[in-house]
């Protein structure tokens, strides 16, 4: 299992030194090419309604796609951090890069 820490940071956070900034919601093919080059990537996501405390469905969907492509750091508004963290953890569990937080055995 390839374990790579994926981080969710607030918009005010600076770009870490070891990470390349892909910008705000870049096209998926560009991100895929940058990740293939081997550098850890950061993508910034901004919701359609920045003032809303509710999770933005479009932002969560984009976070899932970027996490699947291998982006290691997502920069999002503080109101969206918890929801994006759940999405990133879910994607990592599906990809097999992180064990699930809880497993249940279904009995028929």
**Rounded Rg:** 14 Å
- SS-based class: alpha/beta
Could you give the distance between the termini? 30 Å
Summarize the amount of helix as a percent range.
25-40%
Beta-strand content: 15-25%
Shape: globular
Give me the number of helical elements.
3
Largest sheet geometry: 4 strands, parallel
Please give the order of strands in the largest beta sheet.
1-4-3-2
Mean pLDDT: 88
Write up what this structure looks like.
This protein is α/β, with parallel strands linked by helices. The protein contains three helices and four strands. The protein has helices at residues 28-36, 57-69, 81-95; strands spanning 7-10, 20-24, 41-44, 73-76. The chain has a four-stranded parallel beta sheet with strand order 1-4-3-2, with helices on one face. Strand 3 (41-44), helix 2 and strand 4 (73-76) form a beta-alpha-beta unit. Helix 2 runs parallel beside helix 3. The N and C termini lie far apart (30 Å).
Topology:
Blueprint: E1 7-10, E2 20-24, H1 28-36, E3 41-44, H2 57-69, E4 73-76, H3 81-95
Parallel strand pairs: 1-4, 2-3, 3-4
Helix pairs in contact: 2-3
Concise summary:
With 108 residues, the protein is of the alpha/beta class. The protein has helices spanning 28-36, 57-69, 81-95; strands at 7-10, 20-24, 41-44, 73-76. The longest helix has 15 residues, at 81-95.
């Amino acid at each position: 299992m390839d374990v790579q820490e994926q981080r969710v940071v607030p918009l005010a956070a600076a770009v870490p030194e070891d990470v390349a900034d892909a910008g705000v919601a870049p096209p998926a093919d560009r991100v895929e090419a940058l990740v293939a080059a081997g550098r850890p990537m950061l993508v910034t996501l901004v919701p359609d309604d920045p003032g809303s405390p509710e999770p933005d469905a479009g932002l969560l969907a984009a976070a899932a796609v970027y996490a699947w492509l291998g982006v290691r750091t997502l920069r999002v508004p503080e109101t969206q951090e918890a929801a994006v963290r759940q999405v990133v953890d879910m994607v990592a569990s599906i990809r097999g890069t992180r064990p699930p937080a809880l497993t249940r055995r279904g009995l028929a």
